[in-house]
Sequence to fold (311 residues):
Amino acid sequence: MEYSTNHDINDKAHIIKIASLVALAGNTLLAIMKIATGIYAGSLAVIGDGIDSSVDVLIAVMSLIVARIISRPADEGHPWGHGRAETVATALLSCILFFAGAQLVLSSGRDIIWGAEREAPSLPALVVTIVSIVGKLILAWLQHVFGKKADSPMLRANAKNMTADVLLSTGVLAGLGFSIFFNIGVIDSWAAVLVGLWVIKTALGIFTEVNTELMDGGSDKAFYRMVFDAVKSVDEAGNPHRVRMRRIAGLWDIDIDIEVSPEKTVIEAHRIARKVEKNIKKRIVNVYDIVVHVEPTGNQEKEGYGLSEDS
Fold:
């Protein structure tokens, strides 16, 4: 099976592998630093931030596994290839983030509700949080670059997650500053709750986005307009309708019906369909497959799915 795309699937898997190794090394270092320092300095917020980085380590490991899976060629059991493994992994990523955030909210909220007395964290907690912010900025930028190059929703989701981590660590830094300056330990617990809520919000955002791909829905109407324009640029093709577009790990799978004159031979109709395919590929990058169904002009079949120009 050939992949009609600007990014060969093996190249994409290679980019994901490199991005995952970078994320794995960076987040492992940050996680160890934050958890160890959080315990030493007595900061729940820093420990929570470290747990979040530990989740990023798991995400990196998961990404390495996904890179191996999606590089496999299509087979009898998976005629569409293995690209959806990335989508499933991204959904799993959002679940891991959600439960990590919920656990942090529950553990910190318990201290606040029961009025547990805590000492203000010590200065090393501030230092490691500043280092974390700088490190996460670099990692988020690298994941964004790799995600754009590979057109990978999983890497883009990870970049968003790490960008959120920067804001999260900034909130931790502010909470630590107030806690140390005013010598009020409970401020650190409140900061930890806010960190947890932010992680939950990020998880829900990622799940909502990836669920659209899993359900084969919600494609941007701008892409459909590109398809319609591609058909209109072929003189002998008309009435593009029943258009369906879906993503398979960043690659487009497109189905479309067109009408041609019933006077055309099968060979001529096939030539017109091939022109439509080529014009679509000129306008839309990363196309996995296109199926063009040819109908005679004036066909009045009742068709209840897909989009047309007037949809």
